[in-house]
Amino acid sequence: MNKPKVAIFDFAGCEGCQLQIVNMEEEILDLISIVRLVEWREGMSEQSEEYDVAIIEGSITRPQDEEKVRQIRERAKTLVALGACATDGGVNKIKNRFDLQEVKQLVYGADSALPHLDSAPTKAVDEVVQVDYKIYGCPIDRREFAHVVRSLVMGKRPEIPNYPVCVECKRKENVCRYEYHEICLGPITRAGCDARCPSFGTWCFGCRGSVDEPNVQAAREVMERYGKKVEDLEDRMLLFSNKQEARG
Amino acid sequence: MNKKVDVHHVTRIEGHGNILVNVQSGVIEQVEWQVPEAPRFFEAMVRGRSWADLQTIVSRICGICSISHSLACIKGIESAMRIPVSEQTDKLRLLAHYSEQVQSHVLHVGYLVAPDMLGAKSVIPLVQTHFDVVKTVIQLHRMANSWSDLLTGRTTHPITFKPGGFSKIPSETELRGLRAMLSEAVPDLTSLVDVLVSLAGLLPDFERETEYVALVQPDRYTFYEGSIGSTDMAEATPLTEFESVVNEYVSPQSTAKWARWHRDSYAVGALARYNLNSAYLKPLAKDIARMFDLETRRHNPYFNTLAQVVECAHIVESALELIDELLTAGLRQEIPQVEPQAGEGVGCVEAPRGILFHRYVFDDQGRCTSANMSIPTNQNHGNIQRDMEALLPQIVDRSEEEIRLWLEMLVRAYDPCISCSTHYLHVKFV
Lengths: 248, 430
Description:
Chain A is of the alpha/beta class. Chain A is about 35% helix and about 10% strand.
């Protein structure tokens, strides 16, 4: 079997998703044995211009980065977006709610006019090029990453849950966060994290983005039952970008 | 004799940085450390967000220092809203904070620096050539990760930290399990030390007198609280005055905002902490520092990596004591209580790569109206540049390949975490 050549690239983000790959420890060695890792700036010095699978972490926030992503797309047979910044824009998208000039002025003050400070509105990778697969989450789940890589090597389409976090949360017999008077995004957020945040005593903040067709009516009923305002839900949804375009 | 070194994106560091060297007929025309990381504007993005969601956002400044950023944020909120914190909460937070130092230090020493010392381009070929070393590193790294998992809910981007306390604490049984795991890690740590002692001679012999800045406390080697110490100052400075320490400025040749205090630049990180606090190291850590001869290398930036190893030992020793204290007192379930109110507060901890400051202002609804953060790597950039300027004349006669390696190793020694880039500018490269 020809081992697929894999390259990992990073744009604007915290690099926490790449860290989850390192955190697989021994298992990463198994994965490396079924692929050829040809470029990964954070972990190795080698570089390459040829690869079958490109994995992209981070959001796209500058014109020159859009160019680089297009180039990667041209070279790669399969393109995978890794983590919330790449799949949905992540927290980087909160920036888009503000006037960009004002944001630059606030952070860089008098220097904000310098030409090397250009920054464009944040985009998820699929707002620039076609994305074949998405590995959701902030950070990603290591097991899901391994599942996707194995599936790609075997030429199969990886299974990614398309049901809400509540399903996993109930299975773990957690008490609903609404019972604690919290605003939890579990009813609309894509599962696959094993309801990790509710299991550690706090609300879901939606880092895996919403399911493809969220049951808005059910979410509305939950809000009503617990006397919560839809605006509070939307406010929290801003963190991981779900509603930002709608709000403009 | 002309030499050009153009390292476009130094590899095996967290984030994007470039090195540019231009030597014409033996004369150094240019030596620059540049940072092209995309700015992300966190200080602007947190405005208008509720105190309850702030940690979730700012944790994402950095995947490697997410526990430190979260703690600085939560301490800032607690200080602004005068939220009381129990002794148990402080101890559990410190225990979690320790886990991040070890995670990050082992990652840096084992995965990012060791290939240089063992003559490889990454850790992957070392699996064939130095299997035992790789195995030890993996074991230590996994130990530190499951330590974070237990206290914070996952390895990266902590879940359980809340202003006023924890959303979930471990059980006493789990703490006993952690205690056993830490004790078992000591032999791994000492075997890693043995390997590094044999390789320490390969680190460049370079010294430059430097101002070192770190958290200090009267009686301990501190990571989690205290005030701001400097090797140039007898008196410590209160955390609330951090802007007068950092003095951020734009250098005409720079890609990032730089910092300076009493000199042209200063350094933060493990070597800075060692230089200010080494009297309070635990016994095993003191022994290891002696084996590395750290005391006489205290102005050699390459030895920052070895200071990190000394800290790993100190932290494991301190954590064992901390767990005993927690178990003796017995764990209580405490519910965090927060009454949102207007106010301003500063939070500060030592991130693995140096002192980290957050400042927040809140309105009476508890929404953030302004924020300022000073990140360790930002504070180190000026010092990396000054080190390069001092080092290059000493090695200018060597081959381009060797100059490149020494400069790359210098950058890696600082363990830069460039994603924490709230302040970075970027430039176009030749």
